[in-house]
Amino acid sequence: MVEINLEFSGGLELLFGDVKQHKVQVPAKDGAIQVLISDLLVWIRGNLLKERPEMFLKGDSVRPGILVLINDCDWELCGRLASPVEDGDTVVFISTLHGG
Amino acid sequence: MAQAPGVNGLCGGTPASCSSACDRHGEEARGMSANGASVRVTGDTSDGGGGGSGETAAREGAPAAPLCVKCRAAPAEVIANQREPYCGACLRASLLYKVKTAINKHALVQAHDAVLLAFSGGHSSTVLLHFLSELQSHATTPLAAAADRGKTVFRLGLVFVSEAAVLSRPHYDGDADVERIRKLAAPFEKRGCRVHVVRLEELFLKGRSQAHQAAPEGTMPRGSQDSATKGVVRNDSGDQLEEGRPGYSVPHTDGLAGAWERLRAMVARVADATAQEDLVEMLRTEALQQVAVEHGYTKIATGVCASRLAAEVLTGTVKGRGFSLPADLQAVDRRRTVPVIAPLRDCVIKELATLCTLNRWPTTFVPSLDAGPTARPSLNRLTQDFLTLIEDDLPGRTLTILRTAGKLQPFPFNAFPALPPGHRARLQPAQGTEAAAEPADGVNLCALCRAPLTSAEVQDGGAGERGARGPESEPGQRLGADAGDGGNEGRDTAEQARAEQAEERRGAAAPAGDQLRENGAEVGSTGGESDGRGVEVASVGHEASNGDSRGSSGAGRGVVPPGPQSEARPGGVACCRSCREQVLGGTGGTANPAWLHDLPWLDRAGGRAAEEARRDRMRNKIQDFLL
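Structure tokens for the assembled complex are given below, as produced in the milestone run.
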């Protein structure tokens, strides 16, 4: 179980009750030591996402156009879905789907 | 928690956590130096060191954190430029460099300018606001500007246009959005950036043109809101509308609420979702122009970025706007009273969004027709999603699309005078009348979307009875330095189009002069920003049905260079083929629908006088700057 700070922006917050910041407890998959981003996504879908999951998720991953930063680091540099998340980490999801 | 970059992008103290590219860490932190490593010492300059601070140092199970490829000292935080890992500071430096380059190359902002930033609260406009604000505070004094009445730095203001009125949810409360926007703008307001908030429906306030004319310099016409009148809606007598739904209650008073109804009615006339979005975009552009003129701004800066432009390339292709497409993709657009600049045009949205996050620059999301919970799958929306998909698949495609479209030749109005399009120029000291220069340079423009017209489109509007014009003013031919091939291209397609349309028109009935006069146009009336020259080009034939609306770049009147006025037909305005097919739903030879003249910039009542008054005020302001 790890405690994670979640942030949603770029309009994603609307899918989460218009709340940008969440503090959540996420369990690891059975038998696993670490919590990965993939676990986090599954957890979010089941516990936090209020509506229209297709706006946030696509298959196993996030919808294209949504940036994921783990502690201010692009998840592309950390292993994407396989990136581990540790206690106290901050994971930010930013939608770039709408113009600025 | 991650490294702390400090407040508002200020230095966090060490090179690795500095996200403001401040001078504290050496000159290299500012520019694009490939050799930054020597300055950005964090105590370990060897490659294998894993960089300085930051939680991205190797953690259990994760690959070893790569270093930024630019400075090779800080750990990489983001993939920039398609495939290169950058640290936050270098990302910021890279984007700032792109903006500065764009500004210098196209002379976008000069010391004597007053720049109005179109602010939406999103990532692009937030980055633009921070960058322009920074440039403002770091502006050096050009020699010539010393003579500029002591004004050595460009003035900056920002405007938010609330489109709550057009959302499909009736009585959507836009005031909460406005509050959030004001909160974001507050720090900049403290630094002297004037904040304007207007509602889109204010364009439709009865007698607004007169209000423009009558309002003494520096005052706001009643009904529009700025920093002084937060969130209060008053009718024309100044009485506060009753409480109920904040801002949008009591529809029967003819003030803002009446304008609200008129705006919604106009948008509702357009059935197609894409067309509605395009029409709203045109209205928004007009609103920006009006605010800029009212408050004496010389430039409008939008946060239009590379991703948005790439989407426009694709939608423009689908909408059949091949001839006019390049006009909308450039850094400069001088077709309207106030030139519009796009300093972020070379930046992709991913980098802009990441920068906001790394720098803790707050943003907000304001729903619009094509963005948010009620967004419909319009062509615009689908194209953006498609683009996101292919960019996600292979980063770099956005810029590739723009590079392809870069082969299209811009128009003369896509650069400031004395600078042919694409010309490289250092930032000049106060030049003459860039902002007031004749934007259209004699090129005919669509009444709706301001797309340059081919000769066929003009002819079609004028029933083929245009007065003879010299070759230098032939529509479709680009005037100015780069006439060459572009002109021939325009003419060839124009020839073809003309032949086609002649076919179509053969069956059309003779125009009913009375019907056309009903539309209220005057013969020999002035055009828009072409200094009162020219005549309105008439349209021919039957009443067209409602159709879609297109338009990514706003509107104006279609004006032709002066020809013998007696040969002009009264009644209509010239539109491009794309608008005619998608906006007006007709084919060649059909007349424009009457509702066209409800558009604010085509509003005959008081429009012409107000336009001229506006233009004169603009000119006087420019004069003042130069004296």
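Chain A has one domain: 2-95. The interface with chain B takes residues 5, 9-11, 13-14, 34, 52, 64-65, 67, 69, 71-74, 76-79, 83-84, 86, 88-90, 92, 94, 96-100 of chain A (CB under 8 Å). Further analysis is deferred to the final report.
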